Amino acid sequence: MHLEKKANVLLFGDELLHTAVHKYDDIFLKAGASIMKPVKVQKSATTSASDKKALQCKNHGCQKKFVEEENNDQACRHHHLPPLFHDMKKGWQCCSSKMVYDWDDFEKIEPCVVGRHSVVGPNEQFAASPTVTAAENAASAAGSVSAVAVAQPAAPLKSIDDYNQKNPNAVTAVSAAKDNQQAPAPMRTDGKAKCVQFGCQQEYVVAENTEASCRHHAGAPVFHDASKYWSCCPKNIKYDFDSFLKVPGCVVSAHTDIKTA
User: Organism's domain of life (predicted)?
Assistant: First the structure.
């Protein structure tokens, strides 16, 4: 994985966090290995000896220049884990209790480790948000279960028709439920009722109610962060509430004013 800004601007793996990313920048995690910044042309022979000796510290949260002769166990204050970006919050994995929203406040979070400067950078990897981590774990678990299921032969399925032919006098659960099912009585006495189906909520005339009267959603509404959608239509995500209410239903049936469990 690697990082990019808007307009596919690539962030190199060895770029400085403070200089590569600016306030209000949008950062995107893309597939593909991270690459290092192209090596610049060698400096001229007039470069001073002090510049040649200056090294770049690659500890998280430091990134300062240092001279190895002056390096010691108290020289570098840094974070021992990578940065964490979740929704609009920013922080460090090692200091997750100090999450902030403003980029300037993020840069001011006090380091939690003191040690030597290092030119050997840790594996620079931005932490995945809890949502992404949970999704990856679920996908991995599902893949393991699928592999086990494929290895075992599936038992032959028996159809309801086969069962009914072999047991002509048996009463199936479906037919028994239909025989015992009664139309729910309306809750009001004026001949009208209010539909309680998800995505409908309209008032209707009971006598005119048919199996094609109500277009609604089979699932419940889901609100996650700033997004809104129906559990039965997870691909139709909206961020504006009015747009969310206008998402057409995916099921057609009769209106009902009786809430089911």
Answer: Eukaryota
